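Deliverable D5.2: sample structural annotation.
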Amino acid sequence: MDKRENSIEISKKEFRKMGYQLIDTISDFLDDISNQPVTTTKTPLELQRLLGNASLPKHGVSADQLLASTSKLLFNNSLLNGHPKFFGFITSSAAPIGALADLLAASVNPNVGGQILSPIATEIEKQTIKWLAEFIGVSPSYGGVLVSGGNMANFTAFLAARTAKAPKSIKEDGLSNASKQLISYCSKSTHTWIDKAAILFGHGSNSIRWIPTDGSNKMNIEILERTIKEDIKQGHQPFLVVGTAGDVSTGVVDNLEAIAAICKTYDLWFHIDGAYGIPAAVVPELKEVFNGVEEADSIALDPHKWLYSPLEAGCTLVKDPKHLIDTYSSHPEYYNFSLTEEGGSLNYFEYGLQNSRGFRALKVWLALQQIGRDGYVKLISEDIVLSKYFGDLAAQHPELETVTQNLSIATLRYIPEHIEAKGDDINTYLNTLNETLVNTLQAGGELFLSNAIIDEKYCMRTCIVNFRTTKKDIEECIEIIVKAGRKMHQLLS
């Protein structure tokens, strides 16, 4: 068999032609994104009809035809988180260099699980981790690993914390044979990942102590310490405290310095969930807000949130990377991944849950260089200013109420000028009205926001991690919200 004929290979000439056409199509899409609906208005059933219900094709279709039809399918039927009026959840508008980076990474296709499988990709990921540590203001000696997103970044740290603080016999004997229950602590506003971790890793949800927040929505430090003392008295083993650097509902940053001090006192692992907010530590004016970050044993951050990376890109940073190796390293006989050369290389399968790993680092590494520290300071600062502007405009409007504003998250409610309900019924009605309004706005395609419940108030929540958003977009969104709110109030009342 001198030469294999098959339909999977594409000639150099055809690849170049299709590549140029695809780049032209993508360039037009990005250039015109602000004029498109933020999301499709088609129902799941309508989308299924677009795809059809044919069986798997027996014979192949030409690649150029597939790329052309699929581009149209995606551009016309997706939620566009790169749209300047996208404020929902926390997915950033992706830097265009990230799209090119993913094309380049997929073309080389390194498996960044073992150094021998990914020589330069491994070194690029190591440098990316070092730069991310520098970026948020901790020592560049922190080690870490890139993962899919916030859940996996926090899970990775959770298991490292358990290995470091649990009895050494846990690997052999498991949790069921431990004499003391391992307890973790977090504020009531912590993301649901902690609940998943406790359940999936065998601790049970009752092992979590949800610490109340104070008047500023930060973890109550006095109650935290009191709860730890009580658990020790009851014969339990506290092992982990989670501080939040930018909670997903309001953007509040916990008192990280105070949490670090408590962790030192009681020999607990200090983890920071900074998946959303920790990049704001690069802004000089916010340095004090993040005091204590350098004391963290581990930190989760998501470049695909506030560093404008395309999905997927999460990251776990650990002060002493040996804790990752202690947790994840495994060497079955069929692994021939020895590291004998100089230079401190590593195999990333020893740093996390994955063995086979894609080259996530490239898009982050390139964007960090293209934008630079000063560029990020400018972009992140502008996002915060725009969020404050959103909150200010809402506060000034007679039919809107600004509930909170922190970092780049503002929460607000639509309140009609005339409401017939009284007493507790008013809040019940406003919650129904605003929940219906969020659902209507999300389906409408003019803008996209999400929700938060704060002090039993159902709120609209806007998070700006979007380099395309302008003041004009926000002014137009205020008008869209009020117009939709009036219409919804009329229908409900």
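Annotation notes: The radius of gyration is 25 Å. The first helix runs from residue 12 to 31.
The annotation will be released with the project's public dataset once the embargo ends.
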